[in-house]
Write a structure and sequence with these properties.
Blueprint: H1 3-32, H2 36-58, H3 76-87, H4 91-108, H5 113-121, H6 125-133, H7 138-163, H8 167-181, H9 192-217, H10 225-234
Length: about 240
């Protein structure tokens, strides 16, 4: 490399370093200009908006069934049995079970709206810090830690009522009960109601996380000045 090109590369590298430093400094200043209260309120607003959007999205017909990201399949240990049923001309019954499980999830999700909002409203300063610095799974983890147990208790009877109308549900429970006795089935999959409830919660937290990430990436599109101010500074 000749001397002239060497100087050009050196200047370019120096300029890039200065720009990077300036951006980091500006980022720090923009965050520092926000009060702890503003950051907390902005984050709560974003989480509440994301939770409501997720409930609305999943709680409609097809919210689970038509979304490959959260669609509830048969448990792995039942797939072989399902294949046999399909080969013997009983595929319709299998499809009815899968559809029924997903419809049950869609019916249960709206029951969780108030609990999710309450979890956000009761969020501590420490919770907020962990979410802002915890990476892509921080929101999902927050909601799972705070709401999984009470939401599960709320969803279970709704799911049970919905799947009780599906013929194969009883057969599922018989097989699961026998398999559980041999330690072949996880406790949370020992009945169709428990399995669907768990998968409903997993899907709900997944979509809440996605909705919150959308807000982070496009705070202006969230339609809230406070969210725009906080996440515009964090970006």
């Amino acid at each position: 490399m000749d001397r002239r090109r060497f100087h050009q590369h050196t200047l370019a590298a120096g300029f890039a370093w200065l720009v990077s430093g300036a951006l980091q400094h500006a980022h720090a200043l923009s965050l520092a200009s926000l009060s702890e209260q503003e950051v907390g309120k902005g984050l709560k607003a974003a989480l509440e908006q994301g939770a409501k959007a997720a409930v609305s999205l999943l709680g409609q017909p097809g919210g689970f069934l038509d979304n490959p990201k959260v669609r509830i399949p048969l448990p792995d240990y039942l797939e072989k049995a399902a294949d046999v049923l399909r080969m013997t001309g009983q595929g319709k019954k299998v499809d009815e079970l899968v559809t029924g499980m997903n419809r049950a999830a869609e019916a249960a999700v709206p029951m969780g709206r108030d609990l999710l909002v309450k979890a956000v409203q009761n969020m501590s300063v420490q919770d907020a810090k962990q979410i802002l610095t915890g990476g892509d799974n921080a929101v999902t983890q927050f909601f799972a830690d705070k709401t999984r147990e009470p939401l599960g208790a709320s969803f279970l009877p709704v799911v049970g009522k919905a799947v009780s109308q599906v013929k194969l549900a009883k057969a599922y429970n018989r097989v699961a009960s026998q398999a559980s006795g041999f330690g072949l089935v996880k406790k949370e999959e020992a009945s169709v109601e428990q399995y669907v409830t768990g998968k409903t919660l997993d899907g709900l937290y997944t979509i809440i996380g996605e909705e919150e990430r959308k807000i982070r990436q496009d705070p202006v599109g969230a339609g809230s000045k406070l969210i725009e101010k906080v996440f515009g500074a964090v970006k």
